[in-house]
Amino acid sequence: MKKPDYHILMCKSFRLAGEAQGVCDKKGASDLVQYISDECTDRGLDATVSTTGCLNVCTKGPVMVVHPNNLWYGGVESEEIVDTILDALEEGESADEYLISE
């Protein structure tokens, strides 16, 4: 199997009991997963998009992480924000206004 260039994680707030209960899910993270995947395909980005359990930064949610860059983004609540992040990724940069880690 060929490893993708990027692995994009979107927090869906799942807890051990299996239910989405947190901020990320309540703020629409689930609705953005397909959009992120479609945008990566449309842009020709070699990326796998996955959902995660709670990433424990609920105050910054919805949270999206881009690996291998280890870029943690918060407040990813709209397609426009996703576009900004993916635009930066295409340019080999980070969307600093949404970064929640350094």
Task: Describe the 3D structure.
The N and C termini lie far apart (31 Å). The protein contains three helices and four strands, in the order E-H-H-E-E-E-H. It has one domain (6-98): 3-Layer(aba) Sandwich (Glutaredoxin), CATH 3.40.30.10. The protein has 102 residues and is α+β, with helices and mostly antiparallel strands.
Highest-level CATH class = Alpha Beta
- Mean model confidence by pLDDT: 91
> What's the tally of helices?
3
Biggest sheet statistics: 4 strands, mixed
Quickly give the CATH architecture. 3-Layer(aba) Sandwich
Which stretches are poorly predicted, pLDDT < 50 over at least 5 residues? none
Query: What form results from the Cα inertia axes?
Result: globular
Q: Structural class, from secondary structure content? A: alpha+beta
CATH topology: Glutaredoxin
CATH superfamily: Glutaredoxin
Q: Beta-strand level of the residues, as a percent range?
A: 15-25%
Major sheet: arrangement of strands: 2-1-3-4
The termini sit apart by: 31 Å
List the helices and strands and how they pair.
Layout: E1 6-14, H1 23-26, H2 29-43, E2 47-53, E3 64-67, E4 71-73, H3 79-90
Parallel strand pairs: 1-2
Antiparallel strand pairs: 1-3, 3-4
Keywords:
102 residues; alpha+beta; Glutaredoxin; four-stranded mixed sheet; 3 helices; 4 strands
Concise description?
By secondary structure, the protein is of the alpha+beta class. It is 30% helix and 23% strand.
